[in-house]
């Protein structure tokens, strides 16, 4: 949700590092931003409502000078977006500065207790209690005071704390909220995400829950929850900063959409031995694989939609009953889980609180949990029995695109593996399927080359505030994702339905010009989709059909057609999702929306 950064150096100005880091972390939240920098005598704080750009514009050359500081970009939870609720938060005497990502669940009791002791609060946030708790406990050693504060806090936190009395020192800790640290030539760095420090170093420490780090200009020391020194594990990062830059595209979303052929290729690299699908990370023997009698796919948002597509593949190919569940519901529903259940947790960020809670619940109930995530060292990766990385690389745009493709491809591999292990495919069939899956990269490339048809289709949305997305089978699952993309970045209300459901209610909304987007590619149920489209067309709908190239008869029912290359029906969602992403973006741009940072959203949702 929020993004936090920190820097301690010898000569480099902290504000430059902090503002650069916050700009890179802005995808995590953009309601307000602020920095606190120690000049040796006092801690100077600047906070602004709105995006990081407003903060950057308001800090002059001579403001916030100093080589030690912390910063924050906020996605509001407790307390409305406002300057008063922006981080960093200060203690009563302005001696302790705190930035925080997460939620302090018992903040109300703590606040009451602290107010009883005379502390005066100046915001509505949960975070501010941390500053006052540290102030209350401070007796000359910031680490000890922070350890006391966290021992009183219930909830999730990534926390960085500075103290006026200890200039040049930042104490950092975490619980269920990511913190990455590293030492570069100019000093010590901290971020909620590797992108904040990748300029400075490729060797990072992913802090574990309830560990502490003390940053100084000379390096970083690590401690366990009892305060005993520990040796951290270093993770080497092999991707480059290009992922955090637009590379000539007008926005990250378009750049990331265009990366999808590479994502397909990279996700498949090394996954076929010539005879078998190889997912060694699953760490299950063939016998264990064969004992799996139920699969649960748990995820949220776009990742959930990737799961819906996989359900058809796993059930269709491997014949294993598969449920796809929204993670926030799964954990409160007492699902049927046994030791022969395979739970597949899908999360781009690997941080989503609901998905993590569902993983923990499933493991307690005895299931094997397999994670599919895009972020190395993320909690989903660490808390699963095995993990497959989607190779999308850093995804900055809040609307997921390339990570979705990586997820669908990874889940397709899993479905193939399960089917093969049960003898449903022979070697030759596996080889053919893998080869056709790999061909999807070329098919996406072809879609990306002809975007005129998508621009033309977007005109159907002019002046419209609502739309339907309809399809059948995997086309319906593809539509759920298409509708989410449109909603989240253009603010056009969009609902997706299995096309056969339209006549059971939704069709009442259709009037002249109502946009209906259909996935109507060649499949055994193509004719059924077309007749559902006719029902809408005859009521005046403006129909945009995503169809298979060469299908001229679709023009009889559709006002606009977006053609995609022919691929096997099982792989259609991988290709058909791309024009839907482009269509959503086209509509959003036409409406003047910020496609990378849609209102009210954040890239990773670390609160329940
Ligand atoms: C999709 O465009 C959204 N950003 C959102 O639905 C997202 O997929 C969801 O929050 C899940 O995130 P995760 O994959 O990081 O767990």
Please tell me about this protein's structure.
Strand 7 and strand 8 form a beta hairpin. The chain is α/β, with parallel strands linked by helices. The protein starts with a strand and ends in an 18-residue tail after the last helix. The protein has 18 helices and 25 strands. Helices cover 34% and strands 23% of the residues. An 8-stranded antiparallel β-sheet has the order 3-2-4-1-10-9-11-15, covered by helices on one side. 2-deoxy-2-amino glucitol-6-phosphate (AGP) binds next to helix 9.
Provide key terms for this protein.
608 residues, alpha/beta, 8-stranded antiparallel sheet, 18 helices, 25 strands, 23% strand, globular, binds 2-deoxy-2-amino glucitol-6-phosphate
List the helices and strands and how they pair.
Blueprint: E1 3-9, H1 14-25, E2 32-38, E3 43-49, H2 52-58, E4 68-74, E5 89-90, E6 96-104, H3 107-116, H4 128-137, H5 142-152, E7 155-163, E8 170-175, E9 180-184, E10 187-191, E11 203-206, E12 212-216, E13 219-223, E14 229-230, E15 234-236, H6 252-258, H7 260-268, H8 286-291, E16 294-299, H9 301-318, E17 322-326, H10 327-330, E18 341-347, H11 353-364, E19 368-373, H12 379-383, E20 386-389, H13 402-421, H14 427-449, H15 452-458, E21 466-471, H16 474-490, E22 493-498, E23 515-520, H17 526-537, E24 542-548, E25 560-564, H18 572-590
Parallel strand pairs: 16-17, 16-18, 18-19, 19-20, 21-22, 21-23, 23-24, 24-25
Antiparallel strand pairs: 1-4, 1-10, 2-3, 2-4, 5-6, 6-7, 7-8, 8-12, 9-10, 9-11, 11-15, 12-13, 13-14
Helix pairs in contact: 3-4, 4-5, 7-13, 7-14, 9-13, 9-16, 13-14, 14-18, 15-18, 16-18
The structure holds 2-deoxy-2-amino glucitol-6-phosphate.
2-deoxy-2-amino glucitol-6-phosphate is lined by residues 300-303, 347-349, 352, 355, 398-400, 488, 604-605.
């Amino acid at each position: 949700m929020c993004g936090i950064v920190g820097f301690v150096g010898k000569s480099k100005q902290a504000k430059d590092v902090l503002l650069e880091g916050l700009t890179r972390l802005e995808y995590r939240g953009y309601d307000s931003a602020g920095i606190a920098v120690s000049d040796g005598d006092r801690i100077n704080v600047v906070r602004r409502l709105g995006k990081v750009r407003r903060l950057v514009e308001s800090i002059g050359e001579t403001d916030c000078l100093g080589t030690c500081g912390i910063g924050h970009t906020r996605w509001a939870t407790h307390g409305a977006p406002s300057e008063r609720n922006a981080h960093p938060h200060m203690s009563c005497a302005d001696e302790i500065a705190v930035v925080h990502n997460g939620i302090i669940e018992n903040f109300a009791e703590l606040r009451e207790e602290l107010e009883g002791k005379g502390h005066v609060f100046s915001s509505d946030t949960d975070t501010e209690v941390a500053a006052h708790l540290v102030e209350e406990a401070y007796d000359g050693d910031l680490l000890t005071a922070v350890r006391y504060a966290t021992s009183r806090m219930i909830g999730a936190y990534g926390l960085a704390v500075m103290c006026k009395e200890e200039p040049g020192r930042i104490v950092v800790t975490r619980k269920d909220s990511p913190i990455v640290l590293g030492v570069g030539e100019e000093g010590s760095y901290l971020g909620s995400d590797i992108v904040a420090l990748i300029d400075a170093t490729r060797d990072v420490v992913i802090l574990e829950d309830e560990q502490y780090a003390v940053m100084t200009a000379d390096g970083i020391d690590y401690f366990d929850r009892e305060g005993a020194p520990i040796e951290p594990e270093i993770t080497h990062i092999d991707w480059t900063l290009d992922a955090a830059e637009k590379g000539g595209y007008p926005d990250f979303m378009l750049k990331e959409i265009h990366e999808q052929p590479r994502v397909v290729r990279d996700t498949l690299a090394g996954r076929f031995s010539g005879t078998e699908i190889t997912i060694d990370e699953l760490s299950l023997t063939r016998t264990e694989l064969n004992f799996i009698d139920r699969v649960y796919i748990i995820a949220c948002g776009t990742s959930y939609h990737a799961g819906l597509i996989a359900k058809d593949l796993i059930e269709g190919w491997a014949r294993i009953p598969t449920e796809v569940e929204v993670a926030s519901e799964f954990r409160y529903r007492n699902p049927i889980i046994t030791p022969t259940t395979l739970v597949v947790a899908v999360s781009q960020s690997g941080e989503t609180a609901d998905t993590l809670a569902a993983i923990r619940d499933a493991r307690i109930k005895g299931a094997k949990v397999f994670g599919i995530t895009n972020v190395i060292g993320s909690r989903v990766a660490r808390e699963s029995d095995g993990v497959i990385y989607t190779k999308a690389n850093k995804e900055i745009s809040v609307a997921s695109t390339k990570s979705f493709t990586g997820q669908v491809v990874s889940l397709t591999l899993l479905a193939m593996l399960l089917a093969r292990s049960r003898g449903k495919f022979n070697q030759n069939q596996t080889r053919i399927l893998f080869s056709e899956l790999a061909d999807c990269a070329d098919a996406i490339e072809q879609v990306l080359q002809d975007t005129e048809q998508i621009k033309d289709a977007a005109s159907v949305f002019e002046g419209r505030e609502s739309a339907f997305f309809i399809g059948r089978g995997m086309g319906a699952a593809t539509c759920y994702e298409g509708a989410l993309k449109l909603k989240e970045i253009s603010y056009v209300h969009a609902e997706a339905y299995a096309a056969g459901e339209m006549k059971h209610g939704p069709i009442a909304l259709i009037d002249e010009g109502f946009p209906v987007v259909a996935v109507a590619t060649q499949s055994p149920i193509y004719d059924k989709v077309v007749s559902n489209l006719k029902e809408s067309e005859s009521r005046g709908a403006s129909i945009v059909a995503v169809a298979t190239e060469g299908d001229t008869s679709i023009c009889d029912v559709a006002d606009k057609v977006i053609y995609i290359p022919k691929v096997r029906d099982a792989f259609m969602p991988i290709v058909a999702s791309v024009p839907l992403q482009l269509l959503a973006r086209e509509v959003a741009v036409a409406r003047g929306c910020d496609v990378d940072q849609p209102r009210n959203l954040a890239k990773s949702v670390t609160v329940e």
